[in-house]
Automatic annotation (TrEMBL):
Pfam family, one: Abhydrolase_1
Record-given protein name: Alpha/beta hydrolase
Domain AB hydrolase-1 residue range list: 25-156
UniProt source species: Pendulispora brunnea
PANTHER family for this protein: BLL5160 PROTEIN, HYDROLASE, ALPHA/BETA FOLD FAMILY PROTEIN
InterPro entries to which the protein is assigned, alphabetical: AB_hydrolase, AB_hydrolase_1, AB_hydrolase_fold
Length: 271
């Protein structure tokens, strides 16, 4: 099982696809409560474009979870930067979903030399939209309250908030088990706080950025995507069907990645 010692923590990672001269690698960063396993067969579709790295963030599933466990977006972004450097995979086209999208954005802001392009699947930069921030604060309070009552319920409570009534029950049993096992990571990540970045910081991003929102997710995500799209000069947006667990292999994502790994600035069109 491939592991890499990063900032004092062992991270599990996998490599798919082939290294190709002149093409940037692709790094996939999963969201809260999950792991690299959550991407499923979609990894193969991305890896058909080139070298693709998926990993479990610190505290999640197959990677090390220090005890006592605390973390932050900044720490997670620094881990991603160190992993890219250790694997000689920088700069990369970075895809992040939800909390993983916040990590990907923080990576680009903190370590710009490691990122060639960004694909953010409903990254929750909620400080840009007061209504979204109020909603996210409510989610945080309810999930932490559930964890106080029963620590292993943190992930289930989070899924209920994000996917809605019946969302947990629709998940396959292996996903439910993985999410439940990551409940301590959910608590640590929520206590570590959301990413905050001002429009002035986002305006300095000089790389291609694709912002993807889902038509069936809570409205806060679409509000945030719109605000981020207005702030980032090179951003394009795409609205896709389905809920928050946006497919890694959405056509808009594959289109952006296919051009960005070659170092061109062509991006997926607005949809």
């Amino acid at each position: 099982m491939p592991e890499c010692l990063v900032n004092g923590v062992r991270l599990h990672y996998e490599e798919h696809g082939q290294r190709q001269e002149g093409r940037a690698p692709i790094l996939c960063i999963h969201g809260m409560s999950s792991s690299g396993l959550v991407w499923g067969p979609s990894v193969a579709k991305v890896a058909a474009l080139g070298r693709t790295i998926v990993y479990d963030r610190r505290g999640c599933t197959r990677s090390e979870r220090p005890e006592p466990y605390t973390t932050s977006i900044a720490q997670q972004a620094d881990d991603a930067a160190a992993l890219l450097r250790a694997l000689d995979a920088s700069p990369a086209v970075v895809i992040g979903r939800s909390y993983g999208g916040e990590v990907a954005l923080a990576l680009a802001l903190r370590h710009p030399e490691t990122v060639r392009a960004l694909v953010l699947l409903e990254a929750g930069l909620v400080n840009l939209v007061p209504e979204a921030k109020a909603w996210a604060d409510g989610v945080l309070a309810r999930v932490l309250a559930a964890a106080e009552r029963e620590p292993s319920d943190a992930a289930k409570a989070l899924v209920h908030e994000i996917l809605g009534e019946g969302g947990w029950e629709k998940l396959p049993a292996p996903l439910q088990s993985m999410f439940t096992g990551n409940s301590p990571a959910v608590v640590a990540e929520m206590r570590g706080g959301f990413l905050e970045a001002e429009p002035e910081e986002l305006a300095k991003l000089g790389i291609p950025v694709l912002l993807v929102a889902s038509a069936e997710s809570p409205p806060a995500f679409r509000q945030v995507v719109a605000a981020m799209g207005a702030a980032i000069p090179n951003a394009r947006t795409a609205l896709v069907p389905g809920g928050h667990l946006i497919d890694l292999a959405e056509p808009a994502v594959l289109e952006l990645v296919a051009t960005a790994i070659q170092g061109t600035s062509t991006q997926a069109p607005n949809r």
